[in-house]
Structures are given as C-alpha cells and as structure tokens.
Amino acid sequence: EKAVNLKKDLAEMQEWMTQAEEEYLEKDFEYKSPEELENAVEEMKRAKEDVLQKEVRVKILKDNIKMLAAKVPSSGQDLATELNVVLENYQLLCNRIRGKCHTLEEVWSCWIELLQYLDLETAWLNNLEERVQMTENLPEKLDAVNDALESLESVLRHPADNRTQIRELGQTLIDGGILDDIISEKLEAFNARYEELSHLAVSRQIALEQQLQTMRETDHMLQVLQENLVELDRHLTSYLTDRVDAFQLPQEAQ
C-alpha cells in the first residue's frame, strides 16, 4: 500500500511539473506595454517561488522511497527509477524557470535604465533650450555677449555617453520585440528634439562668436581712434599755447 501511495505521489508530482512547464515556459508572451512586462516579471517571480517550495515535497518523496527500498528492495527499485526521472525533470524545471525569471528581470531593469537615461538627457535638452533662449535680445555689450557664449558652450560640452546608452538599450529591447512600439516612439521624439535643439544651439554659438569678433574689432578700432584723438588734442593744444598760426601747421592739423 505504501508503494502504491508513493507511486501515486510521483505521478502527481510529474503532472504538476508538466502543468507548470506549460503555464510558465511554453506560453508565448508579447510585451507591448510596461504594465504587461511588469506583470510578467511578477508572475515569473511567483513561479520561481512556487517551484522552489516543491523542493521539500521532493525531498520527502526521496526519503520515503529510500526507506521503502531498504525494507522492500523489489518495490523500492522500481520507485527509485521513477524517482530519478522526477528528480531530473524537477531540476530541469527549476533551472529553466530561474533562467526565465532572471531574463525578465534583466529586461525590466533594461527598460527602467532606459527611462532614467531619457530623463537625464531630457533635462539636459531643457537646459540647452533655456540657454539658447537666453542668447536672444542681448544688449549690445561685449561682456553680455561673451557671458552668453560661454554659458551656451558650457552646456554644449555635455558628453555623448548617455545618448550612446539610450541608443544601445533601446535597440536591445526593440531587437527582442519588447515594448518596441513605445520605445521607437520615445526614441524618435527624443532624437528629433535633440537634432533640432543641437542645430539651433550650434547656429547661435557661431552667430555669437561672429558678433563677439565684430564687437572686439570695433572696440579695438574705437580704442585706436581714441588714442589718436588724444594725441591730436595734445598737439593742437600745444600749437594754441605757442600761438602758432594755422597756416604754418601741416594740412591735417589745419
């Protein structure tokens, strides 16, 4: 009777493993929204816990069959053979579910990381847009133009590492068919805004550099002119002081 019960327990265990494999490993999942992906991750975590909890039952079966084999070798031998098959299938099921759970957790982590990088780069784009707007309607002063240019250039020196991460993470998920529509839409919007603002910022940078160069050249010319006027004023003053007749002076002094 005990052998019959153990045989029944082994059959039930094998049936449960078959159902678990069909439910957790053979279903085709399509992750088209973050909610679907998150739900799948949570489901696989529960599946892993459920499967690992059966380890106690498997150990009890194993111990009982060993005890029976010690008492009734003939019955125990047949059960031991069936037990080995169940043990192999159980170990395989555990490994496959662990693997799938780990993969889904990695995918979810990849999605969260992508969102974090997008948030960082979006904040940078907002800052860039603000700096570009600050270059408009500047006062015609050398310091103001120079400060605006330096401020814009400091933002433009932003490293490209985050954008590289966004591209690689997004492509990895899209290649796996995971959230591909949502990610493609996000990347398209981000890249379009990045290209537009970067082009505008570089154009403003070039314009400010040209404006600054022109203002410096003008400032230099005015300085030279001022120095010449001071020198001319000194000569004229000396002529007046010496009561020199204008017709005795060089043409430019007259």
From TrEMBL:
Keywords on record: Coiled coil
Q: Which residues form a coiled coil?
A: 3-64
Q: Which InterPro entries match?
A: Spectrin/alpha-actinin, Spectrin_repeat
SMART domains from the UniProt entry: SPEC
Alphabetized SUPFAM superfamilies for the sequence: Spectrin repeat (SSF46966)
Any Pfam family the entry gives? Spectrin
Q: What's the name of the protein?
A: UTRO protein
Gene for this protein? Answer: Utrn_0
